[in-house]
């Protein structure tokens, strides 16, 4: 009986990946000693399957986003040569698929580092490996964002799509992606349902695994989020 209870309390990787969406404290408490490798593997596989299965529905957003980038390059006096446009657009399609492959492992490494820094500032004690675990489990809402985009792609007229921001469940949806500066668009892209959901899960993870108050967990998560926003906004400012 005790063995059964212990096994149940530990939870499988798939159970953790699902349950972290609504009970992150419970998941982090039982997974604090687990390695991150299997979570990365499972989530990468799931994300890739979702991306490949929904590519046709999301492609109009990819194409529209590419068109916006071409317009912005032309506005800066750096238009892409016509003979290179077709190749670049094809590459953009492959880049979207690559996103499905790299989102989780790169997120584990980079976001994990930001979580580790935020945890240090919040006086939470955990290893970099545990920070990667927090970052990986907190990326589940980002995986769901692909599904949300695909659902919108299924019911939206492709001709009305302006860019990926039209699928955002947040501030970026309500601005013009062409006339709005890339830096502001990058900032607004971080203010949506899935990013906020991710931030909350990170806060809970820092709190539970780092054994600090929930308020300290949110301080650490906000530091990590702020650093992440800076890493997206600064390159846009320099472009």
From TrEMBL:
Residues 19-233 form the Yip1 domain. It holds the Pfam family Yip1. Keywords: Membrane, Transmembrane, Transmembrane helix. GO terms for cellular component: membrane. It is found in: Membrane. The chain crosses the membrane at residues 36-58, 91-119, 131-155, 183-209, 216-238. It is a multi-pass membrane protein. The keyword Transmembrane helix applies. It comes from the Bacteria. The keyword 4Fe-4S does not apply. Its main location: membrane. This is Yip1 domain-containing protein.
């Amino acid at each position: 009986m005790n063995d059964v209870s212990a096994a149940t309390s530990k939870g499988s990787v798939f159970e953790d990946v699902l349950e972290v969406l609504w009970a992150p404290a419970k998941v982090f408490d039982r997974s604090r000693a687990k390695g991150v490798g299997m979570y990365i593997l499972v989530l990468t596989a799931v994300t890739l399957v979702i991306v490949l299965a929904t590519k046709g529905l999301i492609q109009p957003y990819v194409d529209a986003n590419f068109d916006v980038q071409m317009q912005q390059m032309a506005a800066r006096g750096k238009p892409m040569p016509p003979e290179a446009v077709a190749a670049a657009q094809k590459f953009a399609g492959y880049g979207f698929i690559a996103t499905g492959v790299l989102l989780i492992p790169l997120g584990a490494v980079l976001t994990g580092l930001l979580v580790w820094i935020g945890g240090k500032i919040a006086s939470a004690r955990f290893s970099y490996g545990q920070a990667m675990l927090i970052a990986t489990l907190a990326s589940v809402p980002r995986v769901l964002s692909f599904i949300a985009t695909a659902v919108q792609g299924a019911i939206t007229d492709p001709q009305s799509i302006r860019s990926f921001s039209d699928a955002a469940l947040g501030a970026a949806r309500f601005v013009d992606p062409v006339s709005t500066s890339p830096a502001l668009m990058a900032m607004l892209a971080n203010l949506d349902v899935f990013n906020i959901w991710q931030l909350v899960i990170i806060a809970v993870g820092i709190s539970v695994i780092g054994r600090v108050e929930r308020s300290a967990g949110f301080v650490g998560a906000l530091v990590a989020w702020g650093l992440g926003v800076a890493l997206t906004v600064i390159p846009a400012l320099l472009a």
